[in-house]
Each structure stands twice: as structure tokens, then as C-alpha cells.
Amino acid sequence: MSSQLWPQYSLLCCLLLGWLAPACAGFSPEQLEWLNSEAEHPALQVNEGELRFMVTGPEKPEHQQTMQITITNDTMHTGWAQVSQCHENLDQVDRLEIVFRQGKVRNLQVVEFKNIADARPQGHRVILRQVQPDSRICVQSESRIMQRSLEQGQRDVYEMTNGPFMRRFLDGFYPLNLSMQVDYPAQCLRLLEIQPEAQPGWQIRYDAHRIFLKGRFEGKLITRFRFAPTR
After folding, report:
1. Whole-angstrom distance, CA of residue 157 vs CA of residue 180
2. Are the C-beta atoms of 131 and 96 separated by less than 8 Å?
3. What is the pTM of this model?
């Protein structure tokens, strides 16, 4: 799954879960002030998609994406998982898109939104209009994110890939705060590996049936989870 944000600006979910993107026309003076202030950030001037985790926090509220993925027994056979996600402090633009990977998302629904004039699904996208300060939107979907394969030695492996996650405007990539929870059936699956590995700016915690990831980054982030069947 990936997600992205676009103004027309792109948001971030690209299946898994998409990306965010804003539309480039018709910015208000306040929106132009935001764009100019973001463009002055020295790191953002040079980032063209290279993933970089950020240890320090933002000076002011910025985009936060929180998501939960639920893997079931059925997911192991079909590849489809339940996904819910919320976005807060979205960029204040006239039009914003949360974009999912086409063909990898279904039953896309807007559950709630505030300080946004309108938000509705359109194919593999969610279109937001007139985003105001302190905004929030939550969406649910089914995402096809798991594949089964055989490794050398004929070991059965299940791999779940999500992303790229990104917050993109034109050719630049802006910081994104991402929190992810993955629930999986411990009676059926055993966690083998998570990529990227834990590092400064990217935290990972897990137990027998749940994984937590949290970080702040700019560029394109793709997460990969590898599981082995327990029987």
C-alpha cells in the first residue's frame, strides 16, 4: 500500500497508503506565506525524494499520519488487509489529495473530518477541499499489501509492503510524522524482519502479535515486514 499527499498537493498514503498532494492554483495570501516559509527550510530545498529520518521535532505543528493495519487469517490467502488511518494538521490549501496505489485499494471510505469544507473518495483518491487550521480526517479501506513466496530452501514467507509514504509538493518532499500499528495473528505468523531497521528518528517496538513504528522523516518511506507461518 502506498500513500501520498498533493496541493493540488499530494498527501501520503500511497498504498499502503497513499500520498498527499496540494493543487497549485488559487492560493490565498496565508497559503502563499506557508509555502514560502516551508521553502526556506534548508533541508527541504535539497530533498528530492531521498529518505532521511529526522531526530529533532518540528518548531510548530505539522502533518501527522496515524494508521492501523489488521492482518487476519484471510489476509494470508487473499493479500487484503483492513487499514484505518487519520491525518492531522494538514497543509492549509484549497485542494488536497490523499492518493492510494491504483488497483491496491478498495472500499475506501471517509469516516470523519473536521476543519475541511469537503472530503470524499474518488476512485483511488480522497479529495479534500478548503483545508483549514487544526484539520483532521480519518479514512478506512482494504489494501492489498501481503504476498506469499518461497525462499531458497523452500521456506514459506509472507511479505507485507507499505508505501511509499511521502508528503510532496511539486518536486520537493516535506517532513511527515508517521505512527503505525500492525496487528497480526500470532497463532499463524511469526515476525522475521522489519525494514527499515530501528535507528535515530525511527522507533520500532513489537511483541508476539503487534508491531509499533513511529518516526519523522522526509523523502519516500517504504516499510517491509517479513513473516513466517507458525505451522
Report:
1. 22
2. yes
3. 0.81
DSSP 208-221: SSEEEEEEEEES-E
Residue 80's domain spans which residues?
3-229
* Assigned C-alpha cell, 190: 511469526
Count up the domains in the chain and report the number.
Answer: 1
CATH of the domain at 218: 2.60.40
Q: What is the pLDDT of residues 63-119, one digit of tens each?
A: 999 999 999 999 999 999 999 999 999 999 999 999 998 899 999 999 999 999 999
Alpha-carbon distance values, 7 to 35, 95, 99, 206, 223 (Å)? 10, 6, 12, 35, 25
Answer for the pair 14, 99: CB distance below 8 angstroms, yes or no. Answer: yes
DSSP string, 87-131: EES----SEEEEEE-TTSEEEEEEEEEEEEEEEEEETTEEEEEEE
DSSP 173-231: E--EEEEEEEE--TTTEEEEEEESPPBTTEEEEE-SSEEEEEEEEES-EEEEEEEEE--
What's the confidence (pLDDT) of residue 153?
63
What is the rounded distance in angstroms from the CA atom of residue 164 to the CA atom of residue 162? 7
pLDDT digits (tens, 9 = 90+) for 29-55: 555 554 555 544 444 454 567 999 999
Burial of 56 (0-12, 13-18, 19+ CB in 10 A): exposed
